[in-house]
Every structure is written in structure tokens, then in C-alpha cells.
């Protein structure tokens, strides 16, 4: 209806006409591009909105999602990433309401998962077994737990093996860390010993209280004091971990692992964290940061300069955080002046092969004297550095580049989708940027898996792997692959060799995860059992000793 044919506002009429199909904000935005005071302008705006309203019905029928995520965003593995910076997508069924925000970190365990393949397996291999068989299997896995605890866990889980497994992992963690309190009140009889026959006066009753009862009273009060001290100590440790995590921008769980590995020393943990940053080449480069590092070096003379340069970069603009960590480092280096490694810059080049003793064609010295041949094979040059030392930092940088490119592409796609309401060319460009975003996401996922493999390789031996710092998905995959490789390499008498040289999978405890058990630990246990491996649970690790 032309504007002159009604008394109401032309914009209100357009909103009323299309509000059932298009968002009101979109209608207002498009209408503002036209002169609604004229019949021609009103007609053009109405034509544009009518075309969009037809597209809405088509897009809803085909499952079109303007955010570019196709409606299937794989959620990252929860629990192994307590501090995870996630990608969140909020999309309505209107093209104008697409929003996308994302934030990623360089930590391997907090990079978003975009590939839905290789999911964490569900433990189903024990479903058809009887309860007694399940108990026998659980007893072989948890040889440090009592049979009553195992039966109780399986009964509480209604016979579900995986639920009982998770519960027992939690129980084993509490027992191994000394947090499983056995209250003596359950063994205390307030009535004391059985009453003695004969005459007793009140004084006699008080005097005849058994020594065992008096000892229980004393033990009860002592245990409460010990418990209170332990609780206070644990709270203090948690505060110190939170202090480091907040100021170094490292996930709480990872700081916790470093903190307990360094025997609850805040200073040693801070040095270890900064060493990891230094290995990645992170340090301040701008003049202002270097000037600030010099000021800290003047105030805290015990702290090596390399830590201060990295500290300034890590803490950013927070002068208070850098001062607090520098003070902590100063106290640590003051108490431990010999902990800093020597910086040996002099490199010794190996002799040429022909100059080595015992090599063919060179059995005399420059003076003409014969050399004594050296038995055995000739010396070899030192092995070249592993791929980890050279590739992990660059891989992490490539992950960051891919994630940033993905965020940029998705941001452009969102902007172009909104502008495409009035121009179809913008919508075509938005589709191109969405596809680029998907490509960058897939590339980042592949690089994350590569970095995880490199990280684990650097922390592993032929008979053990350490999964600290990787995601649940990558950690589970790597554990399954490494155990199979270990088994294949044992050779002909692998059953006997597996018992003599078992394979250890280190997952950590996940001290501050929900329930006290990290999801990486739960997932790896389920995966190994599902694959048919015989294993036992120890503190923070699984020991595989063959096939079931």
C-alpha cells in the first residue's frame, strides 16, 4: 500500500506486514535504505523485503544456518579443559541475527575441537558379563582397593561397568593422595566397655572408665586437629595455585600439576611455567617492556633477566602481577642460588671421520707414531635434534594463525550476510568466507593433533607416555596407538615380555577437576579396557601388562 493511502507510518506498515517472517530490526534496517515518503521508495523496500521473506521459508526448509557452522558445532571435550576458551555460536533463524564470538589460547588442551571423528569410546565390552566377572576384572584393575569398595561401587552403578570404573577412579585418587578420611567415630562405642557386676558408687564409675575409651577420646580430638591442619594446608595450596594461574594465564589444572610436581613450591612452579614460555620464544620485544624488565631487574637482583623479559610479556599491562611474580621468583632464587643452569655457548665440533682413532687408512699420528686402534665400531656423530625441538613452537604459531584466520573469515561472513539482505552479491561473498573459515578450522584441528603428538613424543620413553598438556580426544587417540605399537614391538614372546616390561600411560590426577578425576583419565581408562588391554591403576597412571 503506497504511503499516501494510509494514515499510519509507512515503516510501521512494513514491520507489521513482515514481522512473522523477518526480524523487526532487519525490516527497519532495510527500510532505512529507501525513501518511504515516496511511492517508488516504498514499493522498492516492500519488494526487497518480500524477496527476503520468500528466502526465509526456503532456508528453513533446507536447514540453512547463516553462522556458517551448518548447525553442527562439535563441542570440545569437557573436564580436561577447565579453563577452555570456547567458540560460541548464537544464531537465530533470521540472517540478520547471526553472531559469532571466539577466543583461543596457545595451550594444546584448550584449543577448540572441530573434527567430530574419533570420539571417546563408550566402554561396552563388559556389558554381557555377570556381576561376579565384572568384580573380578575390577579387582585386577584396582588391586589396591578393598573388595567391599568394588562391590559397593558396582552395586551403586546398577551393574554398569563404566560408571563403577569412574567411581573407583575417584576413590583410588582420594586414597592415593591421603584424602580418604576414615572416621574413627564409626568404631567408637560411647557406652564404653561392658558394665562390671558388683557395687559401684559414682566415684567408682568415673574411675573405672576403661583405658581404651580414654584413648579413643584422645585419638578423636587428635584426629580432628590433624584434619583441620590438613584442610588449612590444602586451602593454602589451592590459593597459591590460583595465584599463579591468574597471573601467568595458565589453566588451573596445569598449574596444579606443576605445583605438586615441584613439591608444593610456588617459586619452583613459577620458574617451571616461565621456562615453558621461554621454550616457546615468548618474551617482550618492545622498548617499554624492556624498560620495565630493567626496573624489575634493579629491584630483584636475584632473578635472571630472561625470566623478567618473559614475565613482562606474560603479565601484559598488569604491573602489580609482574611485581608479585618477580618477588616470588626473587625469594626462590635467593633460597636456591644454584638452581639456574649454566649457559654453555661453546660448541665442540666432532672430529672428521677419517681423523678418528681406529679408522681405516689413518693409523699414524702427525708425529709418525702408530695409533692404537679402538675396538668396536667407529664413533658416530651426535644424533640430529628431534623434530619436537624445532617443530612444536612453529606448529603452535601455525595453530594460532589458522585460528585467527578462521575468526576473521567468520566475522567477514557474518558482516556480509547482514549486508546481503539488500544485495545478493554480498551473500555470495559470505558463502566464500564461510567456506574459508571451515578450511582454517580443519587446518587448525590437524595442526593441534600434530602438536599434541610432538608434545607427547618429547615426554615419552619406549615403555611410557606422558599425556599432560593434550586434549581428551588427542590423548585418548595417542594412548591407544602407543600401547598397540608397544605390543607389536614385543615380538614372539610378547605375553611374557609384557609382564616383565609393562607399558605406562601417565595421565595425571586431575586434582581440581569435577569429582577429583580428570576426564582424560576416565577416557583413557575406558579406551584401553574397550580395546581389550589388561591393566592396573596406579596414582596418576595406568600400567598395561598385556591382553585380557
From TrEMBL:
Coiled coil: none
SMART domains in alphabetical order: SMR
Protein name: Smr domain-containing protein-like protein
GO annotations of cellular component type: nucleus
Compositionally skewed regions (Low complexity) per UniProt: 85-95, 103-119, 358-368
Listed CDD domains: CUE
Annotated stretches, region: Disordered: 61-128, 187-214, 357-381
Chain intervals with Basic residues compositional bias: 197-208
Taxonomic superkingdom: Eukaryota
GO terms, molecular function: endonuclease activity
Record domain Smr: where: 465-548
Amino acid at each position: 500500500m503506497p504511503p499516501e493511502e494510509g494514515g499510519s507510518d509507512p515503516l510501521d506498515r512494513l514491520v507489521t506486514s513482515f514481522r512473522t517472517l523477518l526480524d523487526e530490526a532487519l525490516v527497519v534496517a532495510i527500510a532505512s535504505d529507501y525513501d518511504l515518503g515516496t511511492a517508488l521508495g516504498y514499493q522498492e523496500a516492500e519488494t526487497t523485503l518480500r524477496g527476503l521473506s520468500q528466502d526465509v521459508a526456503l532456508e528453513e526448509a533446507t536447514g540453512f544456518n547463516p553462522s556458517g557452522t551448518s548447525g553442527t558445532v562439535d563441542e570440545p571435550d569437557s573436564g580436561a579443559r577447565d579453563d577452555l576458551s570456547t567458540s560460541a555460536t548464537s544464531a537465530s533463524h533470521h540472517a540478520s541475527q547471526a553472531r559469532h564470538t571466539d577466543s583461543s589460547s596457545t595451550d594444546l588442551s584448550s584449543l577448540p575441537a572441530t573434527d567430530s571423528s574419533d570420539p571417546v569410546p563408550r566402554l561396552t565390552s563388559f556389558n554381557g558379563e555377570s556381576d561376579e566377572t565384572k568384580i573380578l576384572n575390577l579387582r585386577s584393575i584396582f588391586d589396591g582397593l578393598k573388595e567391599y569398595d568394588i562391590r559397593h561401587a558396582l552395586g551403586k552403578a546398577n551393574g554398569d561397568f563404566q560408571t563403577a570404573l569412574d567411581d573407583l577412579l575417584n576413590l583410588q585418587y582420594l586414597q592415593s593422595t591421603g584424602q580418604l578420611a576414615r572416621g574413627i567415630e564409626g568404631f567408637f562405642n560411647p557406652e564404653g566397655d561392658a558394665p562390671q557386676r558388683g557395687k559401684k558408687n559414682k566415684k567408682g564409675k568415673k574411675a573405672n572408665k576403661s583405658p581404651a575409651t580414654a584413648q579413643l577420646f584422645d585419638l578423636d580430638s587428635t584426629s580432628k586437629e590433624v584434619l583441620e591442619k590438613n584442610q588449612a594446608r590444602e586451602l593454602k595450596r589451592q590459593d597459591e595455585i590460583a595465584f599463579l594461574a591468574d597471573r601467568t594465564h595458565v589453566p588451573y589444572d596445569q598449574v596444579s600439576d606443576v605445583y605438586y610436581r615441584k613439591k608444593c613450591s610456588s617459586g619452583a612452579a613459577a620458574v617451571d611455567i616461565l621456562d615453558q614460555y621461554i621454550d616457546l620464544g615468548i618474551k617482550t620485544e618492545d622498548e617499554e617492556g624492556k624498560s620495565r624488565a630493567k626496573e624489575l631487574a634493579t629491584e630483584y637482583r636475584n632473578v635472571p633477566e630472561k625470566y623478567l623479559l618473559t614475565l613482562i610479556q606474560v603479565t601484559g599491562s598488569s604491573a602489580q602481577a609482574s611485581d608479585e611474580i618477580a618477588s616470588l621468583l626473587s625469594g626462590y632464587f635467593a633460597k636456591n642460588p644454584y638452581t639456574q643452569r649454566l649457559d654453555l655457548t661453546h660448541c665442540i665440533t666432532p672430529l672428521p671421520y677419517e681423523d678418528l682413532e681406529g679408522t681405516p687408512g689413518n693409523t699414524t699420528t702427525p708425529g709418525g707414531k702408530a695409533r692404537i686402534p679402538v675396538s668396536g665400531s667407529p664413533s658416530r656423530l651426535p644424533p640430529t635434534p628431534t623434530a619436537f625441538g624445532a617443530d612444536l613452537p612453529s606448529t603452535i604459531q601455525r595453530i594460532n594463525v589458522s585460528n585467527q584466520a578462521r575468526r576473521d573469515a567468520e566475522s567477514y561472513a557474518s558482516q556480509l550476510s547482514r549486508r546481503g539482505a539488500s544485495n545478493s552479491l554480498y551473500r555470495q561473498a559470505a558463502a566464500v568466507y564461510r567456506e574459508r573459515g571451515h578450511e582454517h578450522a580443519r587446518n587448525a584441528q590437524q595442526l593441534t593433533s600434530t602438536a599434541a603428538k610432538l608434545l607427547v613424543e618429547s615426554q615419552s620413553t619406549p615403555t611410557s607416555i606422558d599425556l599432560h598438556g593434550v586434549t581428551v580426544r588427542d590423548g585418548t587417540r595417542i594412548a591407544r596407538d602407543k600401547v598397540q605399537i608397544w605390543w607389536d614391538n614385543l615380538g614372539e614372546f610378547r605375553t611374557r615380555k609384557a609382564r616383565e616390561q609393562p607399558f605406562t600411560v601417565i595421565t595425571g590426577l586431575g586434582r581440581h577437576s569435577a569429582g577429583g578425576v580428570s576426564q582424560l583419565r576416565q577416557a583413557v581408562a575406558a579406551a584401553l579396557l574397550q580395546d581389550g588391554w589388561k591393566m592396573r591403576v596406579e596414582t596418576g597412571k595406568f600400567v598395561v601388562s598385556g591382553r585380557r
